[in-house]
């Protein structure tokens, strides 16, 4: 049992716990208050009171009890597991969860949950308190962590960490507005000389200084705050938090490195480990599949499929890459628009409402509208927007024209669709979506009206481009289509690459392992992507990106 002895000088004054904390660098005020409560702090041999003031000339003794041994025990705690195989698992850690047991957090940690889930089958390299833990994130940082189940996997992943080959992107909200759209912070980090519990930017010559690099890019601006993506080359303790604070833009909610008037309702810093990419320990694994949008991504409006896209897709699939499309088009339109292209996976059709396997000519999954609600919406909208065209897609993607205009006609021609003109009541059951077609201004006004009138219904409205607004089944999107496809094919979503161009691709891009926007995409879509092609759709953006993957795989 350790004891500390401190004598108060003639000029010493103030609250005892605060004064003692200032002279015991290893003990916080809360720790000292706990010791006072246990009568382990005495003044001239008499236990002190927590409200006591410093008495000049008095001798204070602090008894430090032996620390209780920390033991990591299995606990049944829910986990969000993104991916799992025999060697590893990827976990989406929630905000507020500590990664491993430590003084003050002896249980309820990620390690406790992992021990239960994996029945103890975790790597031992991290020791008894950190089994399987390859890297950590702070308690109040949410997001992705990779965990090793055996020592070989742990070593392989640690090697990638050491040479900085693991892909890690964090999303954060910071105070203020950056002048530039992107930049980087390159410094040396070490213990704050004034507060050993904090990290700080220090000179290279400082004891324990370690090089740190953080690249950042603006995603969106919100008045007094900015939403950014941070890409790490190094992984130092509190790196992003310290680096952003050093730029004058600390993280919102960060009580340690942020302003004194920290937004306490955020319960910690606004930081999320968004993307995590690595080479699995199993050899030969490179890419599972790529998914891309069709119109204005893979296909041009006039010329259709650029020849370079066709060539590279063929090369990509011949090398074992898995390629499919995620589109608002029905199966017959996909077939007509992609002659000679053999998709290596089922297509995500009708904005996620249909999964269609062209190799067997079968519908693998279908989601349908609430017909009654959709019918009521059409009856409400048609009288208010007289120039609007209306189509209903039903069955396996057959299109029924309820109210024709020049845009519905163009729609049929461009998508190589046959159409059936009929009254609304004659459309068969199994409605997949409703399409409103008109000029951009009418569609914009309809979108505003629908947002106000129909928000929260079982069906929802989706803008697929500036001349179409669609009613889709609730909860259905290209993203849910990808989820259904991954489940069907036993693939991980986090190993997908999505290439898109418009707002209806955003959710899909956010759920993918890696998101790519084509050069002709709107600014918001580009901001949500991990990467933007240098080529537009008409210049062969998809071919450009897939060829990069091919080169990467072959080492060319």
Notable traits:
6-stranded mixed beta sheet; Structural Genomics Hypothetical 15.5 Kd Protein In mrcA-pckA Intergenic Region, Chain A; alpha+beta; Pseudouridine synthase
Low-confidence stretches: 286-291, 413-417
- How many H/I helices? 14
Shape: elongated
Radius of gyration: 29 Å
Question: Outline of this structure?
Answer:
This protein has five domains: 2-64, Roll (Structural Genomics Hypothetical 15.5 Kd Protein In mrcA-pckA Intergenic Region, Chain A); 81-163, Pseudouridine synthase, CATH 3.30.2350.10; 168-277, Pseudouridine synthase (2-Layer Sandwich), CATH 3.30.2350; 289-366 and 478-554, HAD superfamily/HAD-like (Rossmann fold), CATH 3.40.50; 371-473, 2-Layer Sandwich (Hypothetical Protein, Haloacid Dehalogenase-like Hydrolase, Chain: A, domain 2), CATH 3.30.1240.10. Helices cover 25% and strands 28% of the residues.
């Amino acid at each position: 049992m350790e004891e500390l002895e401190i004598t108060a000088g003639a000029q010493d004054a103030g609250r005892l716990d605060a004064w003692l904390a200032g002279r015991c660098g290893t003990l916080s005020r809360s720790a000292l208050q706990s010791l006072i409560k246990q009568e382990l702090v005495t003044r001239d041999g008499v236990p002190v009171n927590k409200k006591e003031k410093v008495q000049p000339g008095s001798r204070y003794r602090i008894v430090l009890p032996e620390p209780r041994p920390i033991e990591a025990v299995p606990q049944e705690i829910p986990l969000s597991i993104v991916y799992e195989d025999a060697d590893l698992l990827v976990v989406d850690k929630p905000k507020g969860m500590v990664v491993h047991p430590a003084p003050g957090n002896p249980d309820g940690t990620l390690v406790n949950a992992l021990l239960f889930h994996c029945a103890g089958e975790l790597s031992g390299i991290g020791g008894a308190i950190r089994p399987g833990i390859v890297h950590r994130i702070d308690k109040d940082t949410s997001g992705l962590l990779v965990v090793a189940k055996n020592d070989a996997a742990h070593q392989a992943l640690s090697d990638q960490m050491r040479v900085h080959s693991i892909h890690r992107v964090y999303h954060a909200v910071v105070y203020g507005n950056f002048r530039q759209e992107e930049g980087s912070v390159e410094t040396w980090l070490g213990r704050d000389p004034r507060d050993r519990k904090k990290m700080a930017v220090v000179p290279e010559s400082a004891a324990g200084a370690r090089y740190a690099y953080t690249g950042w890019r603006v995603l969106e601006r919100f008045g007094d705050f900015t939403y950014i993506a941070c890409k790490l080359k190094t992984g130092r303790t509190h790196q992003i938090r310290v680096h952003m604070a050093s730029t004058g833009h600390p993280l919102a909610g960060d009580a340690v490195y942020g302003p004194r008037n920290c937004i306490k309702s955020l319960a910690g810093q606004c930081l999320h480990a968004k993307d995590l990419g690595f080479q699995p320990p199993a050899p030969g694994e490179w890419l599972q599949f790529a998914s891309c949008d069709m119109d204005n991504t893979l296909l041009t409006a006039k010329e259709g499929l650029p020849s370079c896209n066709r060539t590279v897709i063929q090369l990509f699939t011949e090398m074992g890459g898995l390629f499919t499309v995620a589109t608002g088009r029905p199966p017959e339109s996909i077939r007509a628009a992609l002659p000679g292209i053999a998709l290596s996976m089922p297509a995500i059709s009708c904005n996620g409402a249909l999964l269609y396997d062209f190799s067997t000519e079968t519908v693998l999954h279908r989601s349908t509208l609430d017909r009654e609600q959709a019918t009521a919406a059409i009856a409400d909208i048609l009288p208010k927007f007289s120039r609007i065209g209306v189509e209903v897609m039903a069955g396996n993607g057959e299109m029924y024209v309820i109210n024709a205009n020049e845009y519905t006609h163009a729609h049929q021609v461009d998508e190589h669709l046959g159409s059936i003109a009929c009254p609304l009541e004659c459309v068969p059951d199994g409605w997949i979506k409703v399409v409103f077609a008109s000029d951009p201004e009418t569609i914009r006004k309809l979108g505003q009206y629908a947002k106000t009138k129909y928000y929260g219904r079982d069906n929802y409205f989706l803008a697929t481009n500036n001349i179409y607004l669609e009613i889709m089944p609730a909860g259905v999107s290209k993203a849910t289509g990808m989820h259904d496809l991954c489940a069907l094919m036993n693939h991980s979503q986090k190993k997908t690459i999505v290439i898109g161009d418009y707002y209806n691709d955003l959710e899909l891009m956010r759920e993918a392992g890696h998101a790519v926007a084509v050069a002709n995409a709107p600014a918001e879509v580009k901001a949500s992507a991990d990467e933007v092609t240098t080529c537009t759709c008409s210049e062969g953006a998809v071919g450009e990106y897939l060829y990069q993957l091919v080169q990467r795989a072959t080492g060319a």
